[in-house]
Amino acid sequence: MTGSSRSRHGGNVVALCGGIGGAKLALGLSKVIADERLVVAVNTGDDFEHLGLHISPDVDTVTYTLAGIANPETGWGRADETWNFMESLGRIGGETWFQLGDRDLALHVERTRRLRAGDSLSEITADMRARLGISARILPMSDDPVRTHVETDAGPMPFQNYFVERKCEPELRSIRFVSAQSARVQPDVARALGNSDLRCVIICPSNPYLSVDPILAVGAMRELLRQTRAPVVAVSPLVDGQTVKGPMSKIMREQDLEARHATIARHYDDVIDGLMIDSSDDQIPNHISTTVEDTMMHSLDDKVRLARHVLAFADEISAGRELPQARRA
Amino acid sequence: MTGSSRSRHGGNVVALCGGIGGAKLALGLSKVIADERLVVAVNTGDDFEHLGLHISPDVDTVTYTLAGIANPETGWGRADETWNFMESLGRIGGETWFQLGDRDLALHVERTRRLRAGDSLSEITADMRARLGISARILPMSDDPVRTHVETDAGPMPFQNYFVERKCEPELRSIRFVSAQSARVQPDVARALGNSDLRCVIICPSNPYLSVDPILAVGAMRELLRQTRAPVVAVSPLVDGQTVKGPMSKIMREQDLEARHATIARHYDDVIDGLMIDSSDDQIPNHISTTVEDTMMHSLDDKVRLARHVLAFADEISAGRELPQARRA
């Protein structure tokens, strides 16, 4: 192992991450990467104002997961949750389609208060993760508001109305990330990506279209990923041609896309150097470095194992190979 | 009984009301006065913004009490309450000195949302009481913000910081009702007070200095009470020279006031026609109509009995007597 790769092993790892699937790998990574060297850049395209509160669903899922207080059944929200607020809200005529647990609510109320007082989402998220004993740096992809909107056969709608209120039932036609271009990549994320000791970038097994694309759409993000000398690897969210959770397979069908790892590889073509795929798929993309693993993450051991493997895969690319042609374009 | 007094018995009753003690009598009145003929005008001087939420403690106490869902132990907040929000808020560094239960929180979140959307506190309160099956008209004393501030030996402070955060420990020097003069009496309250079929006005046994004075300080309120031909009667909050709950005795000492019914009578001198006092006090004010009752309200029966008695007392004044001299000034 060369000196240069040793120093890179001590460097930062940046994980791009959506909600549930991404949070699982981020948890695995947080057990393997010490201190603050793990930077988790989280999708905020799903953020919205609801009941007068600022909700950041993916930031919350990652925060709760890394704090060990996430609801293991749902993947979102908190463990040991109670629902008296929602029940009481329904009784006085409030909107109840978006479930907010009593414990969960504290985060939304406190964050909303601080945002109104002028603190940034980054500062608030940093304070909360510190309070909850998380050493990994959880950061929003941007402190500027970016909002995912979908065009469907039932008309255009904001993401949460499509995803939660309508349960992804309308047929998806297109996805827009409102204000993404003019948004600035969160400065610490940009710094980590631009730093020469960056070890690797990992695109977590989140929904590429709804969870990762908004991150890639932010300001200079795509350019930062293209320019870094560190390897960028993605973990395909497909297992056996399906997604573990969520509407990705349905969305791929609606977009006439085959639910294959090759489709994911092509989707990330201009930014990744390697793709980690589940062993269940027989069609291995042939134009990119791939590695085959069991990517299902049931237990904490699974998550840690996958984290180690994806880091090893990235380190291998970093140590042994030229960057693929696509990255040089 | 004359025709005029029969019509008056069918008229509206306006109750001026603070928190716990006032809410108890308001509950009794709501069991005795049918439909919407009971107008409960509630102190909002205690209202404040906390955690980014608009809290109206007295309106809430009256609403919960009349809906039969108040916490019988504390007098404020809701029965069968849980505290997971507060616990979780403390863990992420939020302020926890003002207790907000999980069920209670729904009211604050929904009200705050609607206030920001431009609805008035009156409209919101009306919708909530309808949802909670309350027929009495609970109304804020004003839709304009009035804020009670206290001057103490520890400096000036907003009411809730004195009352809840500091537990009334600082010595009270003076009380101000910020913006009270320029505030408008809530229009339905003003209409009920100005209407010729008003049966009576009842000043509930709330703290005269902290809970009733802010109501009397609003815009034309004192003038409306002086001008009405209906009797205005107060129920003294003192029992045995003490208050049942709250800091009134301490405040009276700090103001060099004797904790006697005569002091209460003098305090309300320019607006009341009669004072109902507890039987435990041996010093009966001699310059005003008084009636002696057991004013302790433990059970619902106590509250209904006291409500009947105070209405009978007012009707007696109305039927049999000239209005006292003070009211003609």
Which SSEs are present, and which pair or pack?
The structure is a homodimer of 329-residue chains.
Chain A: H1 3-9, E1 13-17, H2 20-32, E2 38-42, E3 48-50, E4 53-55, H3 57-67, H4 84-91, H5 102-116, H6 121-131, E5 137-140, E6 147-152, E7 155-158, H7 159-165, E8 172-178, H8 187-194, E9 200-203, H9 208-217, H10 221-227, E10 232-235, E11 238-239, E12 242-243, H11 248-254, H12 261-267, E13 274-278, E14 289-293, H13 300-320
Parallel strand pairs in A: 1-2, 1-9, 2-5, 9-10, 10-13, 13-14
Antiparallel strand pairs in A: 3-4, 6-7, 6-8, 11-12
Kindly describe this structure.
Chain A is an alpha/beta fold and 329 residues long. Chain A has a single domain (3-328), classed as 3-Layer(aba) Sandwich (Rossmann fold). Chain A is built from 13 helices and 14 strands. The longest helix of chain A has 21 residues, at 300-320. Mean pLDDT of chain A is 91; it is low at 1-8 and 324-329. Chain A binds chain B through residues 51-53, 78, 81-82, 84-89, 91-94, 101-107, 109-110, 112-113, 116, 127-128, 131-132, and chain B through 51-53, 78, 81-82, 84-89, 91-94, 101-107, 109-110, 112-113, 116, 127-128, 131-132.
